[in-house]
Amino acid sequence: MLVVKCGGHAEVDPLAVCRDLSGLVRAGEQVVLVHGGSAEVDGLARRLGVPMRRMVAPDGVSARRTDAATLEVLHLALAGAVKPRLVRALAGAGVSAVGLTGVDGGLLLARRKGTHRAVVNGRTVIIRGDHSGRITAVNGRLLRSLLADGHVPVVSPPALAEDGGAVNVDADRVAAMLAAELRATRLVLLTGASGVLADPADERSVRPTLALTGTAGVDGVRAGMAIKLVAAREALLAGVPGVVIADGRSAQPVSAALAGAGTRLT
Amino acid sequence: MLVVKCGGHAEVDPLAVCRDLSGLVRAGEQVVLVHGGSAEVDGLARRLGVPMRRMVAPDGVSARRTDAATLEVLHLALAGAVKPRLVRALAGAGVSAVGLTGVDGGLLLARRKGTHRAVVNGRTVIIRGDHSGRITAVNGRLLRSLLADGHVPVVSPPALAEDGGAVNVDADRVAAMLAAELRATRLVLLTGASGVLADPADERSVRPTLALTGTAGVDGVRAGMAIKLVAAREALLAGVPGVVIADGRSAQPVSAALAGAGTRLT
Amino acid sequence: MVAILCPTCDVGVAVDNTVLPNEIVMCGECRSELEVVTTDPIRLALAPEIEEDWGE
Amino acid sequence: MVAILCPTCDVGVAVDNTVLPNEIVMCGECRSELEVVTTDPIRLALAPEIEEDWGE
Ligand SMILES: [Zn+2]
Ligand SMILES: [Zn+2]
């Protein structure tokens, strides 16, 4: 069982990922594909004239501000554009794929976050009413049933909140939660870099392995990578044995990651 | 087994449909919900500045002109807005729902239509390159598996064409095809009128029954209703015993239809 | 009005100069449906067959 | 600068007049984190606890 997350990053070629996955599926591997799509969300927001805002936490981490209009755009872009493209690409490569958001079948249940702290002009303020949440439960039965019937589930945010609304959740952590729930042997987080870099300015400085010990952060990584490391740690702690952060830009990005490319987290 | 088609009439309340369906599901009925969403497609198209065009066939029937931009908007609106709203409404009423387009799992396979004839300024012209198709096969196995696990599949266009692209198909006829494939006992097509009217100007002139004999059309119905009658006839010919066209605007539209409201087709 | 040979029966078909690209005209001789494939000059080809329905 | 009573320890907290709605200030006495719930007049309440992460 293999869980793959593909971004988000405009430079990752989803068709190459899907072609690569089709080979693994035909070889008998069960695969779940998780996706984000920030570039598509931002692009659709521009077309609709919906301003996208980010907020910066006191620790410097930046996150999407998900007001009601943003959540609508996010749902439109992920479920109505990114996901169908992946499903069609897999179908074109001979693999049956079924697209799901966390709302379908209660696949991803989330607790709505009450408040955020953000830094505005150097001052820390409380932000309320953000439509984002933290995953509390995963409906593994739905995924196992689809996998048993030979489908590749193609999963993305949003998740379903207790109050029946949809909330945005982090797609890397969705992948980690699904890998843990399905007892996947491998979790591959594809990104727009060659892996975790020792020197962010040097593409060739990929760390072959990285130990995520204790709760200490890893220095010198950019924000998107920091969240990937949080997700990787969650998967490792939940017992997923093989967790890799690898380059999504190559011709066969998943096969390469499984063959040792990228950074293996331990 | 019950197949219900709701929407795109703006006046049909999807929340009322979902509440009503939840009662039937809890009573042990297996239900598939099929939806369109013309109003939402047109609304999103306006926001995106994508012109929506219709074409009129030589026989007077009007249809959406589905160029590439229209297909994109249709997919966004149906999969990214209308469907999630129905899935959330069902979840809120205590029913697990899974949203699918015809592309997911090869649920609806279609033959792309080669050409259309349309009347432009009184002249009949050939139109090529329209992204619409006719359903050729239904993946009943995927639906039966979801139904067996207790989910309500929420299905809409587009369908998957042989060439791997998506094509628009008529949602009423999707409902008829699914009812036939699943050997449903009842097909309920909800609309924005009290049923098939003997006098289109008089809401109280509902025909309690209507025989769709042979291939003759029914006089005095508007275009949207004519396509519903085509779908109803297809379901009847395929052996679906109970086919009803009923009012989607009431508080419990499906229960009312099953209790005898609307027009029963024979 | 110009006369264009029908690609089916080779008899001249009277076609109006204001004809549209992709417009359907009928051959009075063999009753073939013909499509205007170019308008300058006007050229005709056998029209594709009618598909029985439209979808949404 | 005005002094507002801390809702936790009842000691005056010095708050700048340019404070923002929902801004966090800290009580120098009891170290409580306080939220500016209104700015005219300035009123303080105990700030909600930090949630550990942000989602997307
Ligand atoms: Zn001729
Ligand atoms: Zn205090």
User: Roughly how much helix do the residues of chain C carry, as a percent range?
Assistant: under 10%
Structural class of chain C: mainly beta
Give the biggest sheet of chain A.
Answer: 11 strands, mixed
Mean pLDDT of chain C: 87
The CATH homologous superfamily of chain A is termed Acetylglutamate kinase-like
The general outline of chain A is globular
Number of DSSP E strands of chain A: 15
Oligomer: heterotetramer
Quick one: which chains have the greatest interface?
A-B, 38 and 38 residues
The CATH topology name of chain C reads Rubrerythrin, domain 2
Placed side by side, the strands forming the largest sheet of chain C appear as: 3-4-5
Radius of gyration of chain C: 12 Å
Q: What CATH architecture of chain A would you give?
A: 3-Layer(aba) Sandwich
Question: How many β-strand stretches of chain C?
Answer: 5
Low-confidence stretches of chain C: none
β-sheet strand percentage of chain C: 35-45%
From the N-terminal CA to the C-terminal CA of chain A, the straight-line distance is 19 Å
Q: State the CATH architecture of chain C.
A: Single Sheet
Number of domains of chain A: 1
Model description:
The complex is a heterotetramer, with 2 copies of chain A (266 residues) and 2 copies of chain C (56 residues). With 266 residues, chain A is an alpha/beta fold. Chain A has helices at residues 14-26, 38-48, 68-92, 140-148, 171-181, 223-237, 253-258, and strands at 2-6, 31-35, 53-56, 62-65, 97-102, 108-112, 115-120, 123-128, 133-138, 152-161, 166-167, 186-191, 209-210, 242-247, 263-265. By secondary structure, chain C is an all-beta fold. In chain C, strands 3-4-5 form a 3-stranded antiparallel β-sheet, with no helix packed on it. A two-stranded antiparallel ribbon of chain C has the order 1-2. Chains A and D meet through strand 7 and strand 8 of A and loops of D. The complex binds zinc ion (ZN) (2 copies). One zinc ion is lined by residues 6, 8-9, 11, 27, 29-30, 32 of chain D. One zinc ion binds at residues 6, 8-9, 11, 27, 29-30, 32 of chain C. Chains C, D: InterPro entries: LysW (IPR005906).
